[in-house]
Automatic annotation (TrEMBL):
Binding site for NAD(+): G9, S10, G11, V12, M13, G14, D32, E92, K97, S119, N143, K273
Protein EC: 1.1.1.157
Protein name listed in UniProt: 3-hydroxybutyryl-CoA dehydrogenase
GO function term, MF aspect, one: NAD+ binding
Sequence similarity: Belongs to the 3-hydroxyacyl-CoA dehydrogenase family.
Listed GO biological process terms: fatty acid metabolic process
Alphabetical list of InterPro entries matching this protein: 3-OHacyl-CoA_DH, 3-OHacyl-CoA_DH_NAD-bd, 3HC_DH_C, 6-PGluconate_DH-like_C_sf, 6PGD_dom2, NAD(P)-bd_dom_sf
Top-level EC class as recorded in UniProt: oxidoreductase
The entry's keywords: NAD, Oxidoreductase
Species name: Cytobacillus kochii
Site, Important for catalytic activity: residue positions: H140
Domain 3-hydroxyacyl-CoA dehydrogenase C-terminal span(s) in chain numbering: 186-281
Stretches that traverse the bilayer: none
Ranges of residues in domain 3-hydroxyacyl-CoA dehydrogenase NAD binding: 4-183
Amino acid sequence: MMSKIVVVGSGVMGRGIAYVSAVGGYEVVLNDIKEEALNSAKKEIESIFAKGVSRGKITGEQSAAAQANLSYATDLKQVVADADLVIEAVPEIASIKRDIFETIDQFAPGHCRFASNTSTMSPTEIGSYTNRPEKTIAMHFFNPVHKMPLIEIIRGLETNDDTVAFIEGVAGKMGKETVVVNEFPGFVTSRMSALVGNEAFYMLQEGLGTPEDIDKAIKLGLNYPMGPFELVDLVGLDARLNNLRYLHEKLGEKYRPAPLLEQYVKAGRLGRKSGKGVYDYTKKPEEAL
């Protein structure tokens, strides 16, 4: 019986995945190598629970039960020893993912399935880091995880039907809708989002308009819920640049990162998490998008 989920990586996505997993009724351990990162994640998750109760999204009893099922740990080898599902949510860097999947493959029980929250990378390649590629899959969540309704499920070359069905069931308990697609770099959503976001940087670089006007045009003209600059500040300019570099390598010139995006990342303008990205969140935080 499926009961325990380990989420590896306590950044923006990992903490959101841990939240929806706990609300879904699972025993959840959020893992990170840094204690301070876990402390930060714990504070934010508690804030999401408090807001959920105050807005009537969940009851006080549901919040208390979910928080009782949620714990935090730095020892990955120990916490995966009795896991039923491990969801990896670390940066899109192959060497980091390889280290994690080789470790969990060694220490997780044989029945345990592995999912990566990658938005671009190959679940087939990730599965090759393990001795259980048939139990490995991509489970692409969207930010903010507790609000966005979709999980994009991507099967690798060796992923079996049982694993797909298992992940669909887990996603359903998390309250999410799913689409199942076959592997190709960038899948569906990341390919489209990366193109739109990169083109917005080319527009800004060319002086076509201000960030505010470009965002407004996309939101009101194309009915997007967020403008491309609002979105990139939320997900992180460094994360978007990593995705574009991967897609450029795999899919060609149309994904070449805009020089202005590279310049912003070099300057440390990474978005909300650094206080400044396309927009400045330090001067007027009450007006931050």
